[in-house]
Amino acid sequence: MHVHTIHSYDGYCTLKEIVKLIKSAGLDGFAITDHDSIEGVKEMEGLSTTGDFIIIPGIEVTTKHGHVLGLGVRELIPKGLPADETVELIKERGGIAVAAHPFWLTGKPGLVHKAKFDAIESFNSRAYFLANRLAYEYAKRNRIPVTAGSDGHAPDEIGLAWTSVNCGRNAEEVLEEIRSGRTKTSGRNFPFLSYAKRGIKKGIISRWRGGGK
Ligand SMILES: [Zn+2]
Ligand SMILES: [Zn+2]
């Protein structure tokens, strides 16, 4: 439910590579969630039929209060807005608003309190220490549906986490299961040292290109 393509400034994989990686991980599909871009979604729409493999359109919006996933969204949601406005826009466009890695350092504290989210990302392979446990416990305590995602940016990260649902093989039904809270989340972390190394390297490269964020 959380994968980055080359259309993210810090993404390494093309859409086709991701499809292959997800299939070889034994998963049935994934959600495209590039940083403030729907270029990957446009590319997906041009892809020839993928059979019953599920690709959910989406975006990861950088808000004033942290990262918000818009699952089922095909249009660009502007970045830099307060979280509650972003969540409203996602819902207006028929999407599901998910608080991404709400307790990890790349987010901002208090995201979960800033808006009425449809779901909380209770497992993210790039969130460490207590971050995932806090997210899971917050969601359970407040009866908010949960999703999991690798937040994969490179081949060795994609497929590390997944959301299980029991429904038909299409994006609409999967999104409905999430909205109704009928999901199970599972996965493992990308090794922390590799994560730290990759973050530093990409940070330097994107700054050098003038695209540092
Ligand atoms: Zn993020
Ligand atoms: Zn992400």
Could you write a compact summary of the structure shown?
This protein is α/β, with parallel strands linked by helices. The chain contains seven helices and ten strands. The protein has one domain (15-209): Alpha-Beta Barrel (TIM Barrel), CATH 3.20.20.140.
Topology readout:
Elements: H1 15-24, E1 29-31, E2 34-35, H2 39-46, E3 54-56, E4 58-63, E5 66-71, H3 83-92, E6 96-99, H4 111-114, E7 119-124, H5 131-141, E8 146-149, E9 161-164, H6 171-179, E10 184-187, H7 192-209
Bound molecules: zinc ion (2 copies).
Main pleated sheet:
6 strands, mixed
The number of helical elements comes to: 7
Low-confidence stretches: none
Per the principal axes of the C-alpha atoms, what is the gross shape? Answer: globular
Q: Give the end-to-end Cα distance, rounded to a whole number of Å.
A: 23 Å
- Please, what is the CATH homologous superfamily? Metal-dependent hydrolases
List the bound ligands.
zinc ion
Beta-strand portion reads 15-25%
Structural class: alpha/beta
Mind telling me the C-alpha Rg?
A: 16 Å
CATH topology: TIM Barrel
Number of domains: 1
Please provide the ordered H/E string of secondary-structure elements: HEEHEEEHEHEHEEHEH
Mean pLDDT: 93
CATH architectural name? Alpha-Beta Barrel
Question: What keyword list fits this structure?
Answer:
213 residues; alpha/beta; TIM Barrel; six-stranded mixed sheet; two-stranded parallel ribbon; 10 strands; binds zinc ion
Structure description:
This protein is α/β, with parallel strands linked by helices and 213 residues long. The chain has one domain: Alpha-Beta Barrel (TIM Barrel), CATH 3.20.20.140. 33% of the residues lie in helices and 20% in strands. It is built from seven helices and ten strands. The strands form three sheets. The protein has a six-stranded mixed beta sheet with strand order 2-4-5-6-7-8. Strands 1-3 form a two-stranded parallel ribbon. The longest helix is centred in the C-terminal third of the chain and has 18 residues, at 192-209. The model has no long low-confidence stretch (mean pLDDT 93). One zinc ion is lined by residues 2, 4, 33, 60, 151.
